[in-house]
Amino acid sequence: MVITIPTKILIDNNLTEKILLLNFACYLYAEQLATMGQARHIANVDQITFQKALKERGIYLHISEEDFEKDLKNLGLAK
Q1: How far apart are CA 52 and CA 73, in angstroms?
Q2: pTM score over 0.70
Q3: How many other C-beta atoms lie within 10 A of the C-beta of residue 57?
Q4: What confidence tens digit (pLDDT) does each residue in 46-59 have?
């Protein structure tokens, strides 16, 4: 898919391809239209960078109750 954005809009808003992709990926993740892995792939960034971008935008991580319980067990905080 190709999306064409007028150069003037990009320049006027100080947007780069990288910023647009990261914003789009964060949106898809926030709306649960993409997993974290899919969104990171779209933005072409590593997990830490993507999580920082989510935090900067006030977007919380989506984690299932099952995954949360596994994390607690791995940390030794639950049986």
Answers
A1: 25
A2: yes
A3: 13
A4: 999 999 999 999 99
Hey, how many other C-beta atoms are within 10 angstroms of the C-beta on 47? 10
Compute the distance between CA of residue 14 and CA of residue 24 in angstroms, rounded to an integer: 16
- Alpha-carbon gap, residue 19 to 50, rounded angstroms: 12
Residue 56 phi/psi, 5° resolution? -60, -30
- Look-up: residue for tokens 């607690």? 72
- How far apart CA 37 and CA 79 sit, in angstroms, is 29
Cβ of 52: how many Cβ atoms within 10 Å? Answer: 12
Domain assignments of the chain as residue spans, ordered by start = 7-74
